[in-house]
Amino acid sequence: MKKIVIGIDVGISTTKIVGIDASGMVISPIRIKATDPITSLYGAFGKYLHDNRIALDEVEHVMLTGVGAAYIDERIYGLPTSKSEEFVADFDLNVLHIIGGGSLNQYLNQFTANSCGVTVLAGPQEGTAIGNIMLQAKASGLVKDIWEMRQIIANSLELKKFEPQNKEAWNEAYEKFLKVKG
């Protein structure tokens, strides 16, 4: 019986899932869109197992990451399940870049700037597509390296800037949270 580790990036609007077998071979990544992260997670997981003819007892472990993973506090279908934190930095941040669909939510971007106490740069919405185009340009010899790719992207897109507001109120709320949390 094969043993597979499943990795699931649970987003708010899109969930990405991939399996890796014991030999390190990647098994058919897929992407599922849904408006509810729980539905998206379980829908993606079921579809992934079905499409790849993987039995539940062949799954050794499930690894979760992404914003939507915060909604999951139990084992997925009774399988060993772990979370990998995306937002942990062991250094000070001065600027936080938000890319993808979430970058369109001005309220969320301002909330993030306020709660984290850092400048937020929002955009581009289609980071994956832009990265794909840049890799194709590199493969075609149109750009020489990642630094040139980054410069083209920076010169081509307008990012929206959000500065922290009401820092004292946010710090007080955080202190209250820490007391309640214990």
Shape: flat
Q: Considering DSSP H and I runs of 4 or more, what fraction of the residues is helical?
A: 25-40%
Side-by-side strand order of the widest sheet = 3-2-1-4-5
Order of helices and strands: EEEHEEEHEHHEH
Which percent band covers the strand fraction? Answer: 15-25%
Distinct helical segment count? 5
Multimeric state: single chain
Structural class designation: alpha/beta
Number of strands: 8
Rg over CA atoms:
20 Å
Mean pLDDT: 87
Description:
- With 182 residues, the protein is α/β, with parallel strands linked by helices.
- The chain is 36% helix and 24% strand.
- The protein has 5 helices and 8 strands; from the N terminus they run βββαβββαβααβα.
- It has helices at residues 37-51, 106-116, 127-139, 146-156, 167-181, and strands at 4-10, 14-21, 26-33, 59-65, 81-83, 95-98, 119-122, 160-162.
- Strands 3-2-1-4-5 form a 5-stranded mixed β-sheet, with helices on one face. Strands 6-7-8 form a 3-stranded mixed β-sheet, with helices on one face.
- The protein starts with a strand and ends with a helix.
